[in-house]
Structures are given as structure tokens and as C-alpha cells.
Amino acid sequence: MSPTQPELSGWTVLVVDDEEDSLDVARRLLKKAGADVLSASNGREALTLIRKHRPDCILSDLSMPEMDGWLLIKELKDSRPTEQIPVIALTAHAMPGDRQRAMEAGFHNYITKPLDARKFVQQLVVILVDFPDFAHRFSGV
To answer: How many domains does the chain have?
Structure first.
């Protein structure tokens, strides 16, 4: 990755979080990295955006009203058009076993909140580069 080239240029990322502050921080950091950012405050809103825009990656909180991240991941994994979209749990749940539970539910990985502005985008890139279908999109990685 070139220091002058945004790391997520050309990516569409959906952030799903009912906490406006967390949503705003993630949005700003992703935009700064060059991503086109969509946002939703719950899983129902997210499903509508996913069907319309088919994002490259989804970051989802686990605990939200209306439809939480657990139900969202189930809906996504049960649908052929969305089952391959990388979905990363973005959550304050940091108890032992939470990561394992998220992975078993179908999340591809787990990033804890509050987000570290210095590390967040790099954490996301490290997660996504493990996907063969996406690794080629990161020049120099």
C-alpha cells in the first residue's frame, strides 16, 4: 500500500451500528481510507442497503434494536446472493468466548469497540487480505 493511496479506495463498506458516535467514527475513518461508506442503525435497514448496493464488506454491531447483528448474520449466510460478503463483528462485547461465538455464527472476524483510530483501518485490511477473492484488491499487500 502506498502512503499516498487510500487503502480502501474503490471499496463499498456498510457499517451497521445503533450507537451514533461509533457509527460516525467508523464512517469517518473508512472515508479517510478511501472507502464509499453506507450506514444503517439496525439489521433491517442494513438488509435493505445490502440488497440495493451489495457492499464489498460489512461491519456490524451485535447488540441493536429491531434486528441485531446475530440475526443479520443468519439472514446473510442463509441467502445465496449475500453468503460470501465478508461480515466483521464490530462490538463492545469483549468477554471470553464472544469472539468464538461470533465466528461460529458466521462472522468472518471481530473488531472490538471503542475503535482505535490509529489501528482500525489496518485491522480491517489485515482481516480482508485473508480472503483470496479480496487480497488482489490491496496493492502491495
So the answer is: 1
- Tens digits of residue pLDDT in 45-82: 999 999 999 999 999 999 999 999 999 999 999 999 99
Please tell me the pTM assigned to this model: 0.89
The answer to whether 58 touches 14, Cβ cutoff 8 Å, is yes
The Cα–Cα gap between 105 and 100 comes to 9
Q: Would 6 be classed as within a structural domain?
A: no
Side-by-side strand order, sheet with 36-40: 36-40, 12-16, 57-60, 87-91, 109-112
pLDDT of residue 5: 52
Measured CA angle at 25 (ends 19, 27), to 5 deg: 95
Range of the domain at 21: 12-127
Q: Which amino acid is at 120?
A: F
